[in-house]
Design goal:
Layout lengths: L10 H14 L13 E5 L11 H19 L3 E5 L1 E2 L3 H14 L4 H4 L1 H15 L2 H9 L9 E2 L3 H16 L3 E11 L4 E3 L4 E16 L7 E6 L10 E4 L13 E3 L6 E6 L11 E4 L5 H10 L25 H14 L3 E14 L7 E10 L2 H12 L4 E3 L3 H10 L4 E2 L1 E2 L9 E4 L5 E3 L15 E3 L3 E2 L1 H5 L2 H4 L8 H6 L2 E7 L3 H16 L4 E7 L2 E2 L16 H8 L1 H11 L6 E2 L5 H20 L18 H22 L3 H29 L4 H22 L4 H15 L30 H23 L8 E7 L2 H8 L2 H7 L2 E8 L7 E6 L2 E6 L6 H27 L1 H6 L2 H29 L3
Helix pairs in contact: 1-22, 10-11, 10-15, 11-15, 16-17, 17-18, 17-20, 18-20, 18-22, 19-20, 19-21, 19-23, 20-21, 21-22, 26-28
Bound molecules: zinc ion (ZN) (2 copies).
The site of one zinc ion has 8 residues, from loops.
């Protein structure tokens, strides 16, 4: 039969076509429907500045698989898409653009700058969502949200006011992590720590009343001594006990500072005496609070020096460090300088070294919120997959510190606070108040800080559904079902969503969290711009097709583990997709009706292989469904791969070929066609979430062919699209245990005969006889009933099956499960010539092995060549070694009986 399915699968011809078809058919869109069960995923909103990388690809492929699968299972599925305004990141991008134009944000002013950012957002901000479509993502695009859109901004304000009223938000002067480049505070989690080879400077401070005596302190940041207000020692420290209360004179500055006793001082560190700089160190800040010390601020927000030390005013912090150390050396106040490795915090956005900085900031009190989030996990309301991530989540929550939510940037949600000029009262309100709530004065100054981006993304699961309005969506789709996320944002985002969800909605925002691995390069390094080792998913889609990219990634992703990827790995997916395509093409070319619609079929027309493939299909359906339930994507695709490649293509299609070609035996032929369509159709269903484009293309062709042949019609093929078809049900009754047990044995026997044929170089057209010797008669009966099958598939012209048969003279043998298979060779081959051939083969293989081993002995090669090349050589070595063993076995067989 003619099929209009092209000979070669070309993804470019069909991907855009089907994506538009799905969108136009409105298949991604959903509306609340009480008759159905909801299944909801909110997308981890990518930054508007984002460009699709492999991490996004993995994250979204997984979500799309879940959504497509649940949709087919009959759930009312919502996949909520959108983007994050990404405060600092986006501001940086637009600032860089302004610099290129020869201006900057300060010249522009706040309002104009924000306009510029919006302009930028309109032009480039949806780029990443367009790229997600290329992957096949079936998001409900009608519902696309943005963390700064009107509705979400309203939600942010509402949440802030609510939290403030409940006492969860406060404003205060604290030491925060300050980026002197971005000129903003950032949260603890946004600081990236890195070990740094620095120094420990030992500096002596003379006693005021006995200048020949000193206390020596050790510091890694000597410039901060300009802000010292005390030196602290442990009250138990014998070395300093008598000095407590004495005054020291701060070198260079000349300020008199006391020696104080504080239990927090570590006797073991440095000299046991520590300088106290409350304005520039978080621990010193706490000591300062306990001892009521002043805050001497010596640094501006850009990291330059200010204050009393005139020589240093205006210097950059590191310039000051150098100059100050010089001066201390000249004064002979540096006792020693030790190399010292310590952890240094960097801004996660611009890599600038963070400065602990005293400033007025807004905070969220985390303890009470964290307790609820811990409880939610412990009582089973939130489950992590794989389970090990629970620990990461809990340990962060158990040790959480208050969250600094204010940022001194312009792009973001402005904190809804207005300070009274007259009485300093802070007025918190949803809308700008016209007078002070306390004194009635009408001059109010609006807060200039904006909120941390994570404050708005923490509301994402319900703000996207219309909260604070009680919308139908919110009632129906919240709490959501599954969150699919990278492990890097478990506390940035996942934990905070749980806290916010519980506090604001009294319900966890999602019941399951699937944490996937990170995509690494071949050498196990993270992919990054600076290393230039990234793989562009769009380029890969262009080269291999979206389905090949999707299936390859899922085949490589073992539950939650990191994935090592190189471009060649996509060939695996492409080969698989092509295999399915070719099988489908073969099937469709053999479906002509031949007026077979009037053929009467009974159960007995179903052959052994039909029952077997239907059993296997049901068992693979079971594996696939159960694996997806457990978020074992890899197990599901592996099961499908094996089923399609081995069972369906290599066995079933081969077995039924004679039946399809033989138009005389109508019943058998129609049954084969029926089973073929049934299995192919169901397989396309199972494969659809993984490879949506290719399966839709084949399914649509199959649908139109089946429509022309009533005998093989399938009820479920009436839908407009495969994506809205029903997920195959598991029918245990269809799994014939006996057939399932017998088939692998037959396959082994047939493979054994094929092995002998190929080892002995016997051409396919030469007929063979086989003798199968078993131990017990039960097995004999079982095999006897499949006599014809063995003959056909092993390409024999006769088989003898018996209990404890003798090995015929001059025959090759194989053993399978204690069953012996003999193939008499007499007259089939020229033994001497064959022996020569095998010996020659052995020599060639040996010399090949030598070359490979030479390479592997070369240390330079092993050290310097890319990992996949070295691994390929290792695989080759193992393969050659195996071949050598095999050839030796064959030679032994040939030597025997001589
Ligand atoms: Zn920065
Ligand atoms: Zn007032």
């Amino acid at each position: 039969m003619e099929t209009d399915l092209p000979t070669k699968y070309n993804p470019k011809d069909i991907e855009d076509k089907w994506y538009s078809f799905w969108e136009e058919g409105n298949f991604f869109h959903c509306e609340p429907d009480p008759a159905k069960k909801p299944y909801t995923i909110v997308i981890p909103p990518p930054n508007v500045t984002g460009v699709l990388h492999m991490g996004h690809a993995l994250n979204n492929i997984l979500q799309d698989i879940l959504i497509r699968w649940r949709r087919m299972q009959g759930y009312n599925t919502l996949w909520m898409p959108g983007t994050d305004h990404a405060g600092i990141a986006t501001q940086n991008v637009v600032e860089r653009k302004l610099v290129k134009k020869g201006t900057n944000r300060h010249e522009l002013g706040r309002e104009k700058f924000i306009e510029e950012v919006w302009k930028w957002k309109k032009e480039y901000g949806s780029e990443i969502l367009k790229q997600l479509r290329k992957l096949g993502s079936s998001c409900d695009w009608e519902r696309e949200r943005f963390t700064m859109d009107e509705g979400l901004s309203k939600a942010v304000k509402e949440a802030f006011v609510k939290f403030y009223e409940k006492g969860f938000i406060y404003k205060g002067k604290y030491i925060v992590n300050w980026c002197p480049r971005c000129l903003t505070a950032i949260s603890d989690d946004e600081v990236e720590h890195e070990d740094h080879e620095g120094h420990l400077w030992h500096i002596r401070y003379p006693l005021r009343d006995a200048p020949h005596l000193f206390v020596t302190i050790a510091t890694t940041r000597p410039e901060t001594m300009l802000g010292d207000v005390a030196v602290a020692v442990n009250p138990e420290d014998e070395r300093y006990k008598d000095m407590i209360g004495e005054m020291l004179v701060l070198p260079v500055v000349g300020r008199e500072i006391p020696i104080i006793a504080d239990e927090a001082v570590d006797l073991e560190f440095g000299t046991g005496a520590v300088k106290v700089t409350p304005a520039h160190d978080p621990n010193d800040f706490e000591i300062g609070k306990r001892h009521n010390l002043d805050h001497v601020v010596i640094m501006n927000n850009d990291g330059t020096i200010r204050g009393d030390a005139e020589n240093y005013i205006g210097m950059d912090r590191y310039e000051c460090r150098e100059a100050l150390v010089e001066e201390l050396k000249e004064e002979k106040n540096i006792v020693k300088v030790q190399p010292h490795s310590h952890s240094v915090g960097h801004c996660y956005r611009c890599r600038t070294v963070i400065e602990p900085y005293l400033s007025e900031q807004w905070f969220v009190k985390m303890k009470p919120l964290a307790e609820a989030a811990i409880e939610a996990q412990k009582s089973g309301n939130v489950t992590f997959h794989p389970e090990r991530w629970t620990k990461v989540y809990l340990s962060w929550l158990e040790n959480v510190r208050d969250w600094c939510i204010s940022r001194q940037i312009w792009w973001g949600h402005r904190i809804p606070a207005w300070q009274c000029e007259s009485c300093d009262e802070i007025n918190i309100a949803r809308e700008a108040p016209d007078k002070c709530s306390k004194c009635g004065h009408d001059t109010l100054i609006e807060e200039t800080d904006v909120l941390d981006t994570w404050f708005s993304s923490a509301l994402w699961p319900f703000s996207t559904m219309g909260w604070p309005e009680e919308t139908e969506e919110l009632k129906y789709y919240y709490p959501t079902s599954t969150l699919v996320t990278d492990r890097g944002i478990i506390y940035f985002w996942v934990a905070r969503m749980v806290m916010m969800g519980l506090e604001i909605r009294n319900e966890v925002p999602f019941s399951n969290v699937y944490v996937h691995g990170t995509i690494l390069d071949d050498l196990g390094r993270k992919m990054s711009k600076s290393l230039g080792n990234g793989i562009d998913p769009l380029l890969m889609i262009d080269q291999y097709g979206a389905d090949a990219v999707r299936t390859s990634i899922i085949m490589l992703t073992v539950e939650g583990q990191d994935v090592k990827l190189n471009e060649n790995r996509f060939e695996m997916g492409r080969n698989f997709i092509n295999k399915v395509w070719n099988a489908a093409r073969f099937a469709m070319m053999n479906l002509e009706s031949d007026e077979s619609s009037d053929v009467q079929i009974t159960d007995s027309d179903y052959c052994f292989e039909d029952v077997w493939i239907i059993s296997r299909l049901n068992s693979v359906t079971e594996t696939c469904t159960n694996s997806l339930e457990k978020y074992r994507f890899n197990e599901a695709i592996r099961a499908l791969y094996e089923f399609i490649w081995n069972d369906f293509c290599d066995w079933y299609l081969e077995i039924i070929k004679p039946r399809l070609y033989n138009t005389d035996e109508k019943e058998s032929r129609v049954v084969a066609q029926k089973v073929l369509v049934y299995v192919l159709n169901n397989t396309l269903h199972l494969l659809h979430p993984f490879a949506p484009f290719m399966t839709e293309e084949i399914w649509q062709h199959l649908k139109s062919m089946v429509a022309q042949n009533r005998a093989i019609a399938v009820d479920s093929m009436k839908n407009k699209s495969l994506m809205i078809c029903q997920w195959p049900e598991i029918d245990s009754a269809e799994i014939d245990k006996k057939v399932m047990d017998t088939m692998p044995l037959l396959q082994d026997l047939i493979r054994a005969v094929r092995n002998i044929r190929s080892n002995m170089n016997i051409p396919n057209k030469t007929p063979l006889k086989a003798i199968i010797s078993v131990h017990d008669s039960e097995v004999k009966t079982r095999l006897d009933s499949r006599h014809g099958f063995i003959v056909q598939m092993a390409n024999l012209d006769g088989v003898e099956i018996g209990v404890e048969l003798e090995k015929p003279e001059s025959s090759a043998s194989e053993v399978v499960n204690e069953i012996q298979i003999f193939v008499p060779l007499k007259g089939l081959i020229d033994k001497d010539a064959e022996k020569e051939k095998q010996k020659e083969h052995l020599n060639k293989t040996n010399s090949h092995l030598e070359i490979v081993q030479k390479k592997l002995f070369n240390e330079n090669f092993v050290k310097n060549a890319p990992a996949h090349i070295v691994n390929a050589e290792r695989d080759r070595e193992a393969e050659l070694l195996g071949q050598i063993v095999k050839i030796k076995d064959i030679l032994q067989d040939l030597e025997k009986d001589d």
